[in-house]
Every structure is written in structure tokens, then in C-alpha cells.
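Title: Request for sanity check on Ferrochelatase prediction

Description:
We are preparing a figure and want to confirm that the structure record we downloaded matches what your pipeline produces today. Could someone re-run it with the sequence below and paste the raw C-alpha cells into this thread? We only need the C-alpha cell string, no images.
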Amino acid sequence: METPALSSPTTYPSTGGPAAASAQPGRTGVLIVNLGTPDSPSVPDVRKYLREFLMDGRVIDIPAVPRFLLVNGVIAPFRAPKSAKTYRQLWTETGSPLKYYGQVIERELQRELGDAYVVKLAMRYQNPSIDAGLAEFQRLGLTEIVVIPFFPQYASATTGSVYEKVMDVLKTWQVMPQLRFVNRFLEHPKFIEGFVQLGRKHMAEHDYDHFVFSYHGLPERQIRKGDVTKDVCRLGDCCSSLHALNQHCYRAQCFETTRRLVRELGIPDGKHTTCFQSRLGKDPWIQPYTEDVVKELAAKGVKRVLAFSPAFVADCLETTIEVGEEYKELFEQNGGQHWQLVESLNDSSLWVETLVDLVKTR
Ligand SMILES: C=CC1=C(C)c2cc3[nH]c(cc4nc(cc5[nH]c(cc1n2)c(C)c5CCC(=O)O)C(CCC(=O)O)=C4C)c(C)c3C=C
Ligand SMILES: [Fe+2]
Ligand SMILES: [Fe+2]
């Protein structure tokens, strides 16, 4: 192997000894990180996943002791068997779609980027872990790392949590790498075009009278805490444009995502609704709730709905089961006739191209 060129003054292996034998400084590590999924749909594995996920102080943002009691005394024992049943519906012969598509993308992105990069898939919770991905970069002596959380819109509970975990690991390294985090990518034209192409395919097959854009919800409290001005966020019309003062607001970013998609798809005002799903617990979450929107649309006489889930880049429980099956059933029970989920970006070439750009654009 040729002696690699120095990409920066700090391009040296972080540890000596055995690692030095396989050190490949000069290559850039790309850590792609999705939320995570249980190792299997068994109750113990789902419980383990839920415990790790919900004990994260950025997800359930209450003090550690009440969080511990809530997660271990209520959520893990009672929710795990119910969630495991839903995970069994989701599971395919290749396992959890979230992980499966992550693995496909890991290979495709590696192929597209070539030998100058080392691509590793990690999950914020469970496996493959962020610790394992970063340990591999350390073993290879990589001193330049790009971290891409698979969340198009920034939220403290998702992107923020990935940052925190990565920094927790890196703080133990002797040589801190050059590091870049991708904060969000809802504005990326190829990300938007990816969903537009999937939507157009369905629109060519059927006529739809309404379009629903359902995003994962968040507790309102977390949106308020993220208002860096402490004065802009009203959790209402303040989210109807995205600008310098509210740019970190997850809700405002979701409305911006919808605006970009409907513009490209040519969907007129009045024919689309942005809403938020998956509320957990009794605290108010950001609104409108998808469940209410589904019932209201059916009550208004809407018959045919095409539903997008643009907070997710891979099919998962939240899209396939919740939007694709549960809201469909609710819509039909209330008089609707046809409800169709637009599948996620999964292994589409536009998604791979988006990632290549995110890695290479500084
Ligand atoms: C945009 C992405 C996500 C945000 C924001 C988010 C916030 C959030 N989630 C919970 C609780 C649960 N989420 C669950 C599943 C789940 N959540 C996301 C993404 C976001 N979550 C994904 C991709 C998935 C599916 C993973 C899969 O394996 O397919 C679950 C587990 C399922 C269940 O029991 O319903 C819980 C619980 C909270 C509390 C929260 C905000 C703070
Ligand atoms: Fe979630
Ligand atoms: Fe807002």
C-alpha cells in the first residue's frame, strides 16, 4: 500500500501497538446512524430496546429517578408485550426493515464513495452500536469522521441524542478526530425528489382527493426547550415559515418539508394536511394529531388519501404499521375508501445520492 497523503496536520493513528498494523489514516470514516430497532421481535428483546431508548434523557426528558421509575415500572413491563406483537407484524425474512435498509445503504454508499471512505452503519439504540462503529474507525486509525444521523429534521430526541452519544465515546480517545455532524437535510433537493418520485408513482396509478404528511410527534415541552430565542415558539402559526429564529424547531422543519414536497408535486392548498403521530403518555405533544386528522378528513367526506411519512428514511414500525395499517383502518372505519402509504426512501438511488452529497459537501 502506498503511503497515504496527509489530509490534515493531525492525520495519525490514535493508538499505537497492534492497531498501528491495520491503521489506514487518510481515509474518512462515515458513520450513518438510524434510531434503532430490537434485535428480534421477542418480548425480552423489545423490552431491552425500549429500556435503552426511553432511558435516554433526551427522549423522556424528565429527571433520572422519575424516568427510571416510569420506564422500568410502567412502560417496559406493559408496553413491551404490546409492542412485540406489532414488531412481529413488521418483521420480514430479512428482519427489521429499518436495519435491513440501513445495511443495504451501508454497502451502496461504500460502493459509491470508494476506498477513500469507510462507511459504517450504527443504531442509536441496540445494534450495531455507535460504540462498535467508532471503535472500528479507531482501530483503523481514522482521524476524520462524518456523522450522518438519518433524521431529515433536527430534534434533540433524535439527532441531538446521536451527537451526545458520539461525543461521549470520542471524549475517551487520545486523538480527537476531525469531526463533522450533519444536522438535518430536509432542504436537500435529492431527498425531496426521492419522496416526490415515490409519490408520483402512486399518483399515476390512482386519483387522490387529499394528501396527508404525517411526521413523528414530540412533546410540546421539547419544542419550547429548543426555542433558542425563548420567545418565538408559540406552537401555532410560528411554524408556518422556517427562518433564522425558528430554524431549530422540529415542528417548523416538518411544515417546511411538506411545503417543499407539495410544491414539487403540484398539490394545491386545501388538499394537504401536515400532522404528527405516535404520542406517548399524557403530556401534550405537537399538533394536529394524525389520529384526529384522519377522523376529520373521513367525516368531511374525503374518500381517497395518499399518506407520506417524510420524517423517516426507511420503512419501520411508525410507517408500515402505524400509517400504513392502523390509520388506514381508522380511515376506513370512519367512511374513507382508499388509504395508501407512500413507502420510504429505503434503498432508492436518490437517497444514496443524497448521502454522497452530504458526505462530500462541507
Ligand atoms: C423522527 C424521528 C423520531 C422522533 C422525533 C421520535 C421521537 C420519539 N419516539 C418516542 C417513542 C417511541 N418511538 C418508537 C419507535 C420509533 N421512533 C422512531 C423515530 C422517532 N422517534 C422510529 C424510526 C421508530 C421505529 C423503530 C423500528 O424499530 O421500526 C417506539 C417503539 C415502538 C413502540 O413501542 O411504539 C417508541 C416507544 C418518544 C417518546 C419520542 C419523543 C421524545
Ligand atoms: Fe419514536
Ligand atoms: Fe415552532
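Thanks, this matches our download. The pocket of fe (ii) ion (ligand 2) is lined by residues 216, 278 (CB under 6 Å).
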